TrEMBL record:
Protein name: Broad specificity phosphatase PhoE
Alphabetical list of Pfam families matching this protein: His_Phos_1
A single GO molecular function term of this UniProt record: phosphatase activity
Catalytic residues (positions): 31 (tele-phosphohistidine intermediate), 106 (proton donor/acceptor)
PANTHER family: BROAD-SPECIFICITY PHOSPHATASE YOR283W-RELATED (PTHR48100), HISTIDINE PHOSPHATASE FAMILY PROTEIN-RELATED (PTHR48100:SF1)
Species assigned in the record: Kribbella shirazensis
Region (Disordered): 1-22
Biased composition (Basic and acidic residues): 1-13
Binding-site residues, substrate: 82
GO terms under cellular component: cytoplasm
Length: 222
């Protein structure tokens, strides 16, 4: 049988696709609702934080049901109360243990802790403006978005190193998820404030052998 150049190219492409290893899938879940979430208060990584409320527990159950067939081999979580509570529900559904990683904790808001962002703008107008525009800016006694990005990158890379070509669930926080999206899409710093993952929502990112990350879905509600 004589093969045309087109046939040969098609066969080579099919072989390359068949030989490509599966991606590492990072399924990122924002914790469920808390009283401070509902009040839109800053609830940062400098303190253990509030527990889930009734809505938050329902968020966790819905996320767990949505991920039951995801094939995840591990659940990693921020050590804060609300993330651990969410992660435990998901891990129970998946039949795995929760592994805590401090680098997945929420941004430390310093003196803004417990304030709404409206209050932050009123009391700290210059600091609030700078924090939204410059990755190096930080709340008073708090953490800059650049510092968050550094530890999130470490945490993300640890997951890939520990579970290459597998699926891992990470339960974390709003600013952390925004930072992941910013790192993936390489957007402007101001874009971080324009991304709003809802409590209990699910975001999925993939990476392959080339180390490039792609955003496959954002903020899906179970």
């Amino acid at each position: 049988m004589n093969l045309t150049r087109e046939d040969t190219g098609r066969d080579a492409g099919a072989h390359a696709m068949a030989a490509a290893p599966p991606p590492t899938r990072l399924i990122v879940v924002r914790h469920g609702h808390t009283a401070m979430t509902d009040a839109r208060m800053c609830s940062g990584g400098g303190v253990p934080g509030p527990p889930l409320n009734a809505s938050g527990r329902q968020d966790a159950l819905q996320a767990a049901a949505a991920l039951a067939s995801a094939g995840a081999v591990a659940v990693v979580a921020s050590p804060m109360i609300r993330t651990l509570q969410t992660a435990e529900v998901i891990a129970t559904e998946l039949g795995v243990e929760v592994h805590e990683d401090d680098d997945w904790r929420e941004c430390d808001f310093g003196r803004w802790e417990g304030l709404t962002f409206t209050q932050v703008r009123e009391r700290y107008p210059e600091a609030a403006s700078r924090w939204l525009r410059f990755l190096s800016a930080a709340p008073p006694d708090g953490e800059s978005l650049a510092e968050v990005a550094d530890r999130v990158t470490r945490a993300r890379d640890r997951v890939v190193g520990s579970h290459p070509e597998r699926t891992v669930v990470v339960v974390t926080h709003s600013v952390v998820i925004r930072s992941l999206i910013h790192l993936t899409l390489e957007g402007a710093p101001v874009a971080i404030g324009r991304v709003q993952p809802a409590p209990g929502s699910i975001t999925e990112l993939h990476t392959g052998a080339d180390g490039e990350w792609t955003l496959h879905s954002f903020g899906a509600r179970p």
